Amino acid sequence: MGNGKHLIVGCGYIGRRLGLALSGQPLMALVRSASSVQELAALGIPGMPCDLDQPVEIPLSTAGVDVWYLVPPPRLGEKDPRLGHFLQALEDNGQPRRIVLISTTGVYGDCQGEWVDETRPPAPVVDRARRRLDAEQQLQQWGRRTGGEWVILRVAGIYGPGKLPLERLRQGKPMVAEKDAPWTNRIHAHDLVQVCLAAMKRGRSGGIYNVTDGQPGNMAQYFMRVAEMANLPPPPLIDPTQAGSSLSVGMRSYLAESRRIDNCRMLRELAVNLRYPDLESGLKACFHDNGALE
What we know:
Layout: E1 6-9, H1 13-21, E2 27-31, H2 34-42, E3 47-49, E4 66-69, H3 81-90, E5 98-104, E6 115-116, H4 127-146, E7 149-155, E8 157-159, H5 166-170, E9 175-176, E10 183-184, E11 186-188, H6 189-202, E12 207-211, E13 217-218, H7 219-229, E14 237-238, H8 243-246, H9 249-255, E15 260-261, H10 264-270, H11 279-289
Parallel strand pairs: 1-2, 1-4, 2-3, 4-5, 5-7, 6-15, 7-12, 8-11, 9-14
Antiparallel strand pairs: 10-13
Helix pairs in contact: 1-6, 3-4, 7-11
């Protein structure tokens, strides 16, 4: 691969949509398994296996290539060795033109409902966010060491066709009441893809961008509206004191953090026009699309 070509590292829910958006352009995706390569081939996306859980040799040149890094960190620990293995492999494969990294707004930690922009120092309070911050810091160090361009996208909760809590609702799992639910933030998958493309083209090198629709809500509202639109029973409501015995560790950790994410820098510098600027329009599109890839 040479100048003007694209590499997606980690081609799952968002990566596949990004790959389809780049259809017709020189493109390669690195995925973990041969079965994933076959799944991508069915969508017309060329792929190669590359397991980043260990030191690797990337089976292609990365000189001058646009790289989107979408691989999540491992499930345990406070570090992200996968990105470290990828950046190490670049030393023998040529300098990419730019790397766009998917991170999370979780790196800000619990902000007690305050509005948060990119000037707020990260303060992660759970390991899943600490791993993401470690990845950010690794990429920044790589940029200082090599002079390479990078952009970090701090992404809010992703929803879209096929990525709604329908099974959770069918199982009748509980949720805290709206008055007890924290502020949460979301971005539709389609809009995240266009932000990924815009960050590669128009983002500042060394820029960090919050990615959200800019219309915070709360998790209880979200579950109630999804249930209504899916013609499913609303989740039973519980008191926060019951959360320890009724909710998963992951859900409890999300409910323990509250923040409202500002997206002004994203809108201004990346010049994106959100297709789904609020949850209502995004959910309607999800049910209309019936889970299909856009």
